[in-house]
Amino acid sequence: MSFGLNNILKKILPAGLFYRSLIIVAAPTIILQIIITIVFFDSIWIKANKGLTRSLVGELKTLSDIYTGKDLAQINYLTEQYKLNFDYLINIQEEELPRTIRERKYSPMDRSLRRELKSIFGNSNYWFDTTKYEDVVEIKVRSSEKIIQILLPRERIAPSSVRLFIFWITFPSLLLISIAIIFLKNQTKPIINLAKAAERFGKGDFISGIRPSGASEIRKAAYEFDKMAKRIDRHLKQRSEMLSGISHDLRTPLTRLKLQLAMLNQKDLSAKMSKDIDEMESMLNTYLQFAKSQIQEDSVATNINKLFDEIASEKSSKNFYLDLPIQVVLVGRKNALKRCFNNIIENGLNYAKNVYVRMSKSKNRLNVFIDDDGPGIPLNQYKNVFKPFFRLDESRNLNHAGVGLGMSIAEDIVRSHGGSIELSRNKRNGLQVKISLPL
Fold this sequence. Notes:
The chain is an alpha+beta fold. Helix content is 56%, strand content 15%.
C-alpha cells in the first residue's frame, strides 16, 4: 500500500528540486494560515457575531414590546434615545413584510441574524437585508398589526472587517514565500549550473573555470567535479598524444623497410613484404585519424542539413540519397560529427549499391538513419563491429577499405556527444545505422 502511495505522490509532486523545496517552505505556512483562519472564524468572529446578534435581537424585542403599547410619549422618547445613542433609525409602517428574500446563504452574519430573529419573532414575522446598503442593515419585524423598520449600523452585528483580516493574514504569507523563493533560487542555481557542466562534460565539451557558489556542500561538489574533469581531460590528452607519437614514429622504420625491399632482387618476396608493410602503414594512418578524433574540439552550433550536403558534394556519388525534410541545428563538434557520418556512409558505399540518409526529430532528440541495400551484418556480430581493428570475414567485410577503426571512431564520437548508435536490418534487407543525439 505504501509503495502505491509513493508512486501517486511521485506523479503529483514536481520533480525539480526548486519546486520541491518551495513546497517544503510554503506548505507549512499555508497550512498554518488556514488553521489560524478557521480558528479565527470559529472561535472569535462567529462567536462574537452570535453574541452581538443575540444582543441586537434582544433590543429589537424590547422595542417591539414597547411599540405595542399606547404611551406615545414613551415611544417617541425611546425612538429619539436610540437614534441619539445607538444611531438607530426607527419607522412605523402599515404595509406588509416584503416577500423577497435578501439573505445570503453563505454569509455567517446573515445565518446568525436569521437564527436569532426566528427564535424570537417566529418564521414569518421578520425580514432583513444586509446587501442593500454598504454600512447599514435594514430589519423589519411584525409587532401586533404594525411593521417596525429599523436601520442600524453594520458594525452592530459585524465584529470586525473580514477583508482587513484576510489582507493581514495573506500579505505576510505572500511576503515570506517571496523571500523564500529568492533564497531558494540562489541555492538551487549552483546545483543547476553544476548539472549543466556535468551534461556538457558528458557530451565531450571541455569544461573550464567552474566557479563554485552556493552552500558549502555545493561548493565542495563543484570544486571536486572541476578537479575530476581536469584530471580526466589531462589523462585523455596524454594517452592520445603518447599513442599518436608512437604511431608517427613507427612510420619512419616502415619507410626504410620499403626502401630496402625496393632494392631486393627477389621481386616476388619483395612484393609480398611490401603489401604487408602497406597494410601496417594503413593501420598507423587510420589510428592517427582515430587519435585526432580524441583531440579536444570546441562545440559550435552546426546545421546538420548543411553538414550532409558537404558530405554529398565530397562523395559525388549518384548512389547516395538524402531525405532531410526538417532543418536541425545541433550544438556539437562539427569536424567530429562529419567524420562519424562520413565513416558510416563510406562503409555503405563500399559494400552496398545505394546509401540512404534520413532524419527525424523528437522533443529533445535528433535521430539520423543511414540505410543501405547491401548484404547486411549477422545479428550476433552487431556488438563486435564497434571493437577496434575487428575484421568481419563473412558476407560484409567492413575492413575491405580500412583496418577496422571506422565504426569504432563513429561510436566514440556519438558517445562523446551523449548519444547512442544502434544497428538493425532495414526493409531493404540491408544494414540500418541509427544515430540518436541529444538536442
